[in-house]
Amino acid sequence: MAQCSEAGLAVLVLRELDLPQDRRAELALLLAQHVQVITARRPLPGTWGVHLAAHQPVADAAAGGVHSRSCHNEEEIERAVAQGAEFVTISPVATSASKPGYGPGIGLPGVRRAVAVAEDVPVFALGGVDVSNVRDLRVAGAHGVAVMVTVMRASDPAAVVELLLEGSA
User: Fold this and answer.
1) Which one of 87, 104, 111, 129 is least enclosed by Cβ atoms within 10 Å?
2) What is the largest CA-CA distance in the chain?
3) What percent of the chain has pLDDT over 70?
């Protein structure tokens, strides 16, 4: 994690929903020494915010700092914006190695529509994001990208973070 942070990683969404809450809390505090941590689904001490699932009530983020939401279509984006989400993710933008069979990807036209619907709320492209498509996603209007497999399965995760950030510039 330290190397990825040094390479420019600034924010991490902590999922690990299969861990007991106390273990997730410990992990969040360790990660927060390096990056801002947003936790998936429910607040944890020491984190910056909560990233809600598309179906979750906004009340689940209460007292959790900023809140964001996973979105998969324009209706979900409209609801997230109306409920005060500080940012949204839109997915999948391409075929995703972490969720094979989930999709189809919305592609660059879908990212453009998501950005238009979200108006001033930042949209992060998620699902199938890698070094080869990050620049196009940013040109399509994505505020940034969210990745998992591309970094986690890399032999040098920090180098991949650097390449993703270069592609975002």
Assistant:
1) 104
2) 41
3) 98
> Into how many domains does the chain fold?
1
Residue 160 has pLDDT above 80, yes or no: yes
Which of 148, 150, 145 is CA-nearest to residue 165?
145
Residue 67, both tokens: 């809140």
Identify the pLDDT of residue 143: 96
Which pLDDT value is given to residue 165? 92
Whether pLDDT at 157 is above 90: yes
pLDDT at 64: 78
The domain in which residue 59 lies consists of: 2-168
The CATH number given to whatever domain includes residue 9 is 3.20.20.70
